[in-house]
TrEMBL record:
UniProt-recorded name of the protein: Secretion system C-terminal sorting domain-containing protein
Keywords, alphabetical: Signal
Signal sequence range: 1-21
Native source organism of the sequence: Pedobacter helvus
Domain of life of the organism encoding this protein: Bacteria
């Protein structure tokens, strides 16, 4: 019985491993030392350049412009395995239609998809198993991606089915139907592509961050982000920086694991730094893999040491926010500059409260000064 159970568990493990989702991915975030297109890629009617994590394609003139991948027999885009396509791009043209093309039986077949006008980076997903394909003016239905016969690509195992796609291309944007050309004012517009992914199912396409914003609110800085889909998503680490270079983790938001629907997240930083705050998300998978988002910035409106003074009932309370640990002297003077109270203070990074009890002040205007290691900051208050 024990041996039978062991065999069953071994079989189950093998099945689970064999059924593991697969991913083919090409990222354009590592340009060569001498700018050139990656091997097997060609850009037709584009001028290309690199910036940051993207390949920038500037349209030269009205006409057909496309990015093509043609590795010949070395292609690893297996049509029997990869059923979903995701392209991440930013678009400077009008909202229009793009086309994903592939070769079948020595003819081009395509799937159109809409790209947003003048947008930042967005993910566009095509379901190769269900979208309707077209080509040469004919609609083909949904069975052409996993195709048989007609091309030189050899069939593995003699099953008559082509597993590897010989050539793919992207028309970004596509020409007007029937003419193949683009409007003249599309010249010098740029399409930027970060990556192209083929997956065996939606779960192979990593967490798709659709939006990430930061906005100042009365109680702090509110971060909002949303995902279009999630796979293996453990959590998000929320990172903050005062200089956009050195980030520290300030919070953690749990992910939803796996999801094919839009999910919204929100976090409010109630201890924002004075001046400009830079935020970044670090998405963490259950297996420990991580991916950082773009950086967003917002000004908190706080000074380096922002504080308020409350006086009454024989006591003075000082509420101060410090961007870093700080030590110095707390001075209270009257309006003529005469020193009334001098006391040392030691602030920790964040919000601090100092209370001075049994303080007798006559009615009038006074000044509290925090003289720290780096600078002095003063505020007036009135004693009644």
């Amino acid at each position: 019985m024990k041996k039978t159970a062991t065999l069953f568990l071994s079989f189950l493990l093998c099945f689970m491993l064999g059924a593991k989702a697969q991913l083919w991915e090409f990222k354009f975030n590592q340009p060569p030392a001498t700018p050139s297109l990656p091997s097997s890629w060609a850009a037709v009617n584009y001028t290309f350049s690199y910036s940051g994590t993207a390949l920038n394609l500037k349209i030269n003139a009205a006409g057909t412009s496309y990015l093509q991948y043609n590795p010949g027999g070395a292609s690893t885009i297996a049509t029997k395995t990869y059923k979903l396509l995701r392209v991440r791009l930013a678009n400077e043209t009008d909202g229009t239609v793009a086309r994903f093309y592939f070769r079948n039986a020595n003819a081009w077949i395509y799937i159109p998809f809409n790209i947003d006008a003048n947008s930042g980076y967005k993910d566009y997903t095509i379901d190769l198993a269900s979208e309707a394909f077209s080509g040469n003016g004919v609609s083909f239905g949904t069975n052409k991606w996993e195709f048989t016969g007609g091309d030189a690509d050899a069939s593995p195992a003699g099953d008559g089915t082509h597993r590897n796609m010989p050539i793919i291309r992207f028309d970004l944007p596509s020409g007007h139907p029937g003419s193949g050309s683009l409007p003249a004012d599309y010249a010098n517009k740029t399409i930027s592509i970060e990556y192209i992914r083929f997956g065996s199912d939606l779960q192979t396409l990593p967490v798709n961050l659709a939006r990430f914003t930061a906005k100042k609110q009365a109680n702090g800085i509110q971060l909002n982000w949303s995902t279009a889909s999630e796979e293996n998503n453990s959590h998000f680490d929320i990172l903050r920086s005062a200089d956009a270079v050195n980030f520290e983790k300030i919070a953690r938001e749990e992910g939803k694991g796996n999801s094919n629907s839009a999910i919204n997240y929100q976090y409010t930083d109630t201890k924002a730094l004075p001046g400009t705050n830079y935020y970044q998300l670090n998405q963490v998978d259950f297996d420990g893999k991580t991916k950082k988002s773009e950086v967003v910035a917002v000004n908190s409106g706080l000074k380096n040491v922002d504080f308020k003074v409350y006086s009454g009932n024989g006591a003075i309370k000082i509420s101060a926010f410090a961007s870093n640990d700080d030590k110095g002297k707390l001075l209270i003077t009257d309006i003529s500059g005469r020193k009334i109270i001098e006391s040392p203070y030691a602030f920790t990074k964040g919000q601090n409260v100092v209370e001075l009890s049994s303080v007798k002040l006559t009615a009038g205007v006074y000044v509290v000064t925090l003289a720290g290691k780096m600078e002095a900051t003063s505020v007036k208050f009135t004693s009644k």
